[in-house]
Every structure is written in structure tokens, then in C-alpha cells.
Amino acid sequence: MEWVTDIPWYAALRSYFPILTWMPRYNLTWLKMDLIAGLTVGLTTVPQALAYAEVAGLPVQYGLYSAFMGGFIYCVFGTSKDITLGPTAIMSLLCSAYIGGDPVFAVVLTLLCGIIQTGMALLRLGFLLDFISYPVIKGFTCAAAVTIGFGQVKNILGLKGIPQQFFLQVYYTFHKIPEARVGDLILGLCCLFFLLMLTLMKTSLASSPDESPLFIRSARGLVWSLATVRNALVVIAATAVAYSAEVTGHHVFSLTGKTAQGLPPFKAPPLSETVANGTLITFSDIVKDLGGGLAVIPLMGVLESIAIAKAFASKNNYRIDANQELFAIGLTNIMGSFVSAYPVTGSFGRTAVNSQTGVCSPAGGIVTGVIVLLSLAFLMPLFFYIPKASLAAVIICAVCPMMDFRVPLQLWRVKRLDLLPFLVTFVVSFWEVQYGIVGGVVVSGFMLLYIVARPKVKVCDDGVLLLEPDSGLNFPVTEHLSRLVFKHALHASPPRCLVLDCSHVSSLDFTVVHELTELLKQIQLRGVSMIFAGLKPSVLKVLLTADLPGFRHTDRVDEALLLLTSISHYQQQL
After folding, report:
1. Every domain range in the chain assigned CATH 3.30.750.24
2. At what angle do helices 182-207 and 230-247 cross, to 10 degrees?
3. Residue 249 and residue 242: Cα distance in Å, rounded?
4. pTM over 0.90
5. N-to-C CA span, the chain
6. Interval 217-240: pLDDT, tens
7. Nearest Cα to 91, choosing from 332, 270, 278?
8. Over the stretch 257-266, which tens digit does the pLDDT of each residue have?
9. pLDDT-based confidence at 2, cuts 50/70/90?
């Protein structure tokens, strides 16, 4: 086998099919760990997928339809051993803003997201994600956590008729508190309490030293395992309570209700829809209605997944290929649209569980996918009795860690101006999530453009003016540079000779060269001189080609200062 791996075409094949890099080394130990991790993640995925479908405004089975394809596709095309693809809280919230609870819109959105993401991967456009800054991401995730979490309060209280828009949601939730159902409230609070206790137990067990006797370590391991699948345990217990109440004739809980049974059919995604009144909604109408979601959702899906993959790759000492990750996510969404999925991305919580349970390869995702498929095949009738309050508790506990309000303090300490895109994204996201992201990116973009257009320029005047830009010279800088030259050199009395330190300049564009030509003409008219210092070979070649009037240069700044100082003294003596 070793001689095959040395062939160039095989190396190229491995870059497109990463499974070929780890499959030859697969062994029984890896199989055992992947089975344990896949089973654990599967038990976490099923209740979360049901809950996130509620956030997206879709019937609960669509959460499971979206949860299994990623495990199979990513196993072949993914480069991270830890990450798990599926429905997430943020992606569900974003989708809810565009699909309006319509499964057809959700499936078309999935298909188009996959095509866009795959196209970006093939065109190597992953660099576009670099323009979404960390303050924008954190502002969005904090706002999304608040929006998603508060959006589930209505299910904890058993309220109906609450609008989706955040501010109206807040008003009507408090307005309708007297209508709260006692059964839902008690069950929801109990689920929240047990989820919180199990989370704290898991955290304390993970941080405590492992020097106890064997039977205590075994007991701790059992408790840690139960705490890891806490979502499944709480939902199962709540469903048992609700089922008992229903069969005895006590309708005290708001239930999930009727769900489609069995596996989703594998079929081409619908590209049109006929509504109840007989109106045909064409593919172009659907695309028009999805609008900005075709930009926001693919980018945020990729950003979330790659950020998680990079974090766990760094933690576990391996590397990922960002463009290959982009391709894997895109292909997952394309194939997911054939099984009625809505857009998916990497899940931080489930990826953490996957890593902590010792997964050795992406094959763990296949086990998770099988668990979801078995749930769809055999457990759907039981999902009728799942209380909405228990799913709401699962969602609230899942999004609470996303509300990291230490970030504003960190931004304040490092660079206070970065609070601006954070706050714009955070505040505007409560109005419309997509506008929050766009607003934050625009503000970050203007801040970046200002830094490019107005770089810091060190000005020293010891008889000869020295200008030292701390970054490159691009066309937005020309007006700023000219203003400094006129202010400190040409409009001074008497006019100063000057040195332009270009040691930080790596390239020039035509606008900069044209402005330098005009400056040199003005300098000559006033009878002073200008010398360029520290030019890199590529920049020097451009300036020599441009044939600037009176162009002079030296390798070192001190040589240029010495030369111009001598010229100034000579002119003063004359």
C-alpha cells in the first residue's frame, strides 16, 4: 500500500477525498471509540434536532431530516475528525426569518445554499469569510442566543399566539402571562432544573482529579456519561410524564402533536409549490422571497462550521483544509435537499461531545446518522407525546453558553473602537438578524477602509522633513499624503526638503504614481528636493518605469537625510 501513497495522482485524490488519508490506518480501537462517540452524539442530536426544527418554524420531523445526511457526506469529504454537521440554533433562527414556516421554501433554500457553498469552494472564495470580523460574529451570536432563548419562554409558559418579531414577542409574552398553563410551566422549570444540574455535574466531574479508587472512578464515569446525554434523558422522562397524563385523560401539557412517520423519501427537491387556494409559486418567486438569505445563510453556515473545526483542530493538534470543509458543507446541503432537510452547519455543542468522548475519525458521524435514521423509522409515533416545554428547556440550555457577555469587556481593554461593530450587530439583530450581520460587516468595512485610507504617518522635522507611513500606499492614501507634504514642507517658511521613507511600502498603484508625479513637479517649482528611501525592488522598478520628474532614491533613510541636509545648508549659504 505504501508505494500507492507515493504516486502524485493518489496525493491529489486524497486532497479531494480526505477519507483516503485515515482509512488505511483504521483499526478496531478506532472503531470502538467511534461507536461510543457516535452513539453519544446521536442521543444528543435527536432531541436537539426536534427542538431546533421548532426554532426554524418547521414541523419537528424536519429537524431529524436535516440531522443524518451530514454524518455520511462529511465522513468522506471532511477534514476534521471532531465536527458534526446538522441543525443548529443559529442556523434555525436565520432560516426562520426567510422560509416563513414553509417546508418547500426550506428545501429550496437548502439546495441553493449547497450550490453556493460548493461553488465558493471550487472557486476558492473562502477568503470572503475573512471580512466578517470577530466583534461582528460575537455580537450576532449573543443577540441570537437572547432571541432564541426568549423565543422559547412562550413554550415554557404554554402560551399561544405569540408573534415571531422579537420586540412584539417580548411585549405579548409578558402581556399574556396570566394565560400561562400551570402544567407546562412546572414541567418546563423541572426540565430546566435537571438540565442545569446535570450540566454542572458534568463540569465538576471533568475538572476534578482522577486519583480515586476504581469503583469511584467507575461511578463518576457512569454519571459523566448520563450527564453527556442529559438532553435525551430529560426529553424521555418528560415524554413519559406527558404520555401518562394523556392516557389518564388529563390534558395538562402542550404536546408536539402529529408528526410524519417513517424515513423521508429520497427525491428531487421541489422547485415550485401550489398553495391551498390553487396559486402556483414558481421557482423564481421562491428565490425572490428568499432574497438576502441566499447570501447570509451560506456565509454564516460556513463561518460557523469552519470556526468550530479550526478550534477543535487546534485543541487536538491536527490541521483542516478550509476550502475542503466548505465543499463538504455545500455537498451536505445539496444532498440534504433530496431528503427534505433545511440548511445545516457545524454544531459546537455536539462537536464538543464528540471530541470529549474520544472520537478517532469522521466515521463517528455515520453512527450518529444511523441513530437518527432509526429514530425516524421506529420512534416517530412516540414523538407525538413530547411536551413542547421540554424541547424549549433543551434549546434554552443549549444557547445559554453562547451569551458570552465578557466579550464587550475584552474589546474595551484591547481596542475600544471594536465595540462599535459589536454593538451595531447586537442591537440591530433584535430587529432583523440578517440586518444585524450586514450592519456589523458594513461598519467593520468602513473602519478597515479608514485605516487603509488614513494610515499613521510619522512626521519628523529637523530642518529636513521625514515622512514615514506605517503601512502601504494605495490610491485612497494619495490625498492624505499630498496634504501632509503641502502642510509640512511646501507651505512651510522656508519650504522644506523631504524624505519619504518607503520601507513599509510593498506595492504601488497607478493613482499613487500619478500623485507622486504631481508632487515632484510642485517640489521642483518651489526649489526643494525629495528623496525616496528604503524602496523595495518591486516598488523601485515601478517608479523607474514611470519616469518621475526629479526622481532620486537611496537605500537608507540616514543617507537621504544627510544628503538633503547638506543641500539645505548649501542653499541657505547662497
Report:
1. 457-572
2. 160
3. 11
4. no
5. 84
6. 667 777 777 777 788 888 889 999
7. 332
8. 877 878 999 9
9. very low
